[in-house]
Amino acid sequence: MIRRVTLPVCVAGGVMRLGRRTVLLVEDEEAITTPLQEALEREGFDTRVARTAGEALAAAREEEPDVVLLDVMLPDGSGFDVCRELRRDSRVPIIMVTARGDEADRIVGLELGADDYVTKPFSAREVAARIRAVLRRVEDGNEAPAGERLTVGELALDPAGRTASFAGEPVELSRKEFEVLELLAREAGRVVTRERLLEEVWDTTWFGSTKTLDVHVSGIRRKLGDDPSAPRYLHTVRGVGFRLEAPS
């Protein structure tokens, strides 16, 4: 059960926010959940623990947490399935928890819409830092001016609503895919370096492999129907970064 604390409410960007945020911790190992829950509480988060995939989906819909910390291995299913289900109707930030060295797990999670990942073993301070980084990116993304629209050829982005369409058809993007594409659209026709994309989309707390950027670019191309061997919109500038531009 979540321990609730009443704190003053602040208003940012027209959205009312409580001082404490709720983390849904999806993990079945008692040796991990108990100390991590206590540590996150000390770091200023309220926590709710779910030990199965079924509990996780129910808790996410009933409690509406601010962040989901989701283990890949669950007793009644896969964390990937939970991530997929949550992404059907929710943009809640998801941080996947994987075993060290399982790069394939990390790639799958990112492709399904996870925002970040941590690897076991991890420290509670690292987890808290990643949670804060994800929340910060979400809040920054909510500050886009109302009515602003970015268009590059047949591609259209609504930063405020975080929606995208291509040739008039909606395009379902993960949070990170949208942020990568938005930055490229704002710099349409110019090369955006890999370093800048990693810094602005994943910010300075990102410690993962830069391969995650390639995973997201690949996902964007696939969803736009852009042939990676002969892209029309999203071009790779080898050794530098990427450029988004409408075909001439």
Structure explained in plain terms:
With 248 residues, the chain is an alpha/beta fold. The chain folds into 2 domains: 9-141, Response regulator (Rossmann fold), CATH 3.40.50; 150-244, Orthogonal Bundle (Arc Repressor Mutant, subunit A), CATH 1.10.10.10. It has helices spanning 30-42, 53-63, 79-89, 103-111, 124-141, 175-186, 194-202, 211-224; strands at 9-12, 15-18, 21-26, 45-50, 67-71, 73-74, 77-78, 94-99, 116-120, 150-152, 155-158, 163-166, 169-171, 191-193, 234-237, 241-244. The radius of gyration is 18 Å and the shape is elongated.
Question: Could you give a short description of this structure?
Answer:
This protein is an alpha/beta fold and 248 residues long. It is built from eight helices and 16 strands. The strands form five sheets. The chain has a five-stranded parallel β-sheet, with helices on both faces. A four-stranded antiparallel β-sheet has the order 10-11-12-13, covered by helices on one side.
